[in-house]
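Before the break, one more example. Copy the sequence into your notebook; we will annotate it together after we see the structure.
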Amino acid sequence: MYKCLKFNLARNSLRYLIRLYGIKKIYLPYYLCNVVRQSVLKENCKPLFYHIKDNFMPEIEFKKTDFILYPDYFGICRKNTEILAEKYPNLIIDNSHAFYSEPKGLASFNSVRKFLPLYNGSHLFLREEKNLDLPLDLPLKTDDFRETPKTEDDKIKAELSFENEEIKLINPIIDEKIKEFKDNGERKEKFLKLHEIYLGVNELKIDTDNITCPFTYPCLLKTEEDADNLVKTLNRKGINIIRYWNVLPKDYNEYKFYSRLVAIPII
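Here is what the structure looks like once it is written out:
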């Protein structure tokens, strides 16, 4: 059984979780948004790093007592999360790319704005334990209601404003609006259509039977030139492509994802 707490941002769900369990060290993948690392450091928690394989699974074995953050990359790694949750009691799943996935592990959290046309919001699911006193007694404010950014400039301004956003409870208006949206299978259907188009060139082995509601369609091209050409083609069609995430050393296995993976929006 899981208890759900609701905050203003996914990064703040993680920060609350670190405080709640008094986590001093946590394993993070190298291939991850830098915001997560910054959030960990804000809580005086030491980040330790691990590499991932071509199937997005960790390259190393962890101790049973280790706290591990694992992202459901692009919403296509449900099977990975199930395997890891069975193996590691303190697994924390970042479902920012898998909003509708069932909670697993010690805890999981998602990001409302990644999936829904709403300003912000995050659900933190915590495994109920007898010795866990919830909620943690913090003087938390309720977030102000803000309209969803309409233009690209407004989106950038909103993203920058999140950098110094303190931990707040979700705004009740946004909380109510979330209930208006359901996973009707449309995103997965569009994902499968993209998979039909790019299957011949995509070097990722995607298990379409283990996808709930994906965030984007990740297409790993053979060369950087191929990836750049695909991005240009999509840009000409008015489709903006975001590179995930910060540049990594070329000798890292993950560099191929940074340089050759095109995350195609599901629209």
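The domain at 186-265 is CATH 3.90.1150.10 (Aspartate Aminotransferase, domain 1). The mean pLDDT is 90. Try to locate both features in your own notes.
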